[in-house]
Structure formats: structure tokens, C-alpha cells
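Inverse folding, one chain.
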């Protein structure tokens, strides 16, 4: 693949990726959730690895004026800049560098979030099991009371 073909593929892939990215309902909220870098690799069997796209959000005016601006719950400010990496390794190194520069440890946040979700799931399962057990005990108690009442009514004749 020539450099011109690669650049053409990259332009098409980036345009399509950005279109889908911008249409996502989560898009307006990403930077407020701390997601300000996105990495996506592109390639196929025919052409091999095309490249890795890195988009990052900057709080700058894009300079784009819309005739009919899209009205939504959130006004989108800033813009997503992009760059391409020629190898997956370059993209991984860039992602690791970005992670290192964060003021928080992303791995710890993921670990804490997973633990929190697991604990909440276990609590919900435990409460459900206790509720089912309580219902079974109530049914057994009522059944035992009914059996005792019937036993009192039965007269044994010798």
C-alpha cells in the first residue's frame, strides 16, 4: 500500500469513526466524565494495519458556524483533535504516557469500581435469597398450622 492510499484510507476511517463517535448519545458527556482521550486501531486482512487513531479533547473554539445548530440538553464546547500512529506499539506507548500523566491511577479506579459493583450485586443476591427463604418459612409455618388444626379435628375411634 502506498503512502497516498494509506492516507486516503485514514481519512475515510477517521471521517466514519468521528461521525459514529459524534452521534453516540454519550458523546456530549465524555469529557465531563474524564474521558478526554480515545484510541482506535484500524486495519483489515487485505491492506493490513492502516494505523491507530488518537482523538483528544481540547477546550478550544472549533471555529465552526452552523446554519441550524443541533439543539440538545448539553451545549458542546471544545473540539476533538486527532493524530495517527503508524504502528500499534506507538499507540500503546502514547496511551501509557497519557495514563502516567494523570493525577489519578486509572487501574485503581477500575479496580475500585469493579469491587463496588461486585459488592452491590452480592448484597442484592443476598437480600433476594433472604426474601425467598422468609417466604418459604412463612409458607411452611402456615402449612404446619393447618396440619395441627386438622389433627385436632380428627377423632380417633378405637
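Residues assigned per position:
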Amino acid at each position: 500500500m502506498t503512502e497516498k492510499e494509506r492516507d486516503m484510507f485514514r481519512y475515510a476511517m477517521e471521517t466514519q469513526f468521528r461521525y459514529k463517535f459524534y452521534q453516540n448519545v454519550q458523546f456530549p458527556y465524555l469529557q465531563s466524565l474524564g474521558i478526554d482521550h480515545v484510541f482506535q486501531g484500524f486495519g483489515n486482512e487485505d491492506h493490513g494495519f492502516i494505523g491507530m487513531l488518537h482523538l483528544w479533547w481540547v477546550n478550544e473554539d472549533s471555529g465552526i458556524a452552523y446554519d441550524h445548530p443541533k439543539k440538545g440538553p448539553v451545549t458542546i464546547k471544545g473540539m476533538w483533535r486527532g493524530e495517527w500512529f503508524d504502528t500499534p506499539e506507538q499507540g500503546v506507548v502514547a496511551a501509557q504516557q497519557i495514563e502516567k500523566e494523570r493525577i489519578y491511577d486509572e487501574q485503581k479506579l477500575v479496580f475500585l469500581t469493579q469491587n463496588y459493583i461486585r459488592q452491590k450485586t452480592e448484597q442484592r443476591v443476598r437480600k433476594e435469597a433472604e426474601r425467598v427463604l422468609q417466604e418459604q418459612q412463612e409458607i411452611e409455618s402456615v402449612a404446619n398450622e393447618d396440619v395441627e388444626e386438622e389433627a385436632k379435628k380428627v377423632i380417633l375411634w378405637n
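The mean pLDDT is 85. The radius of gyration is 30 Å.
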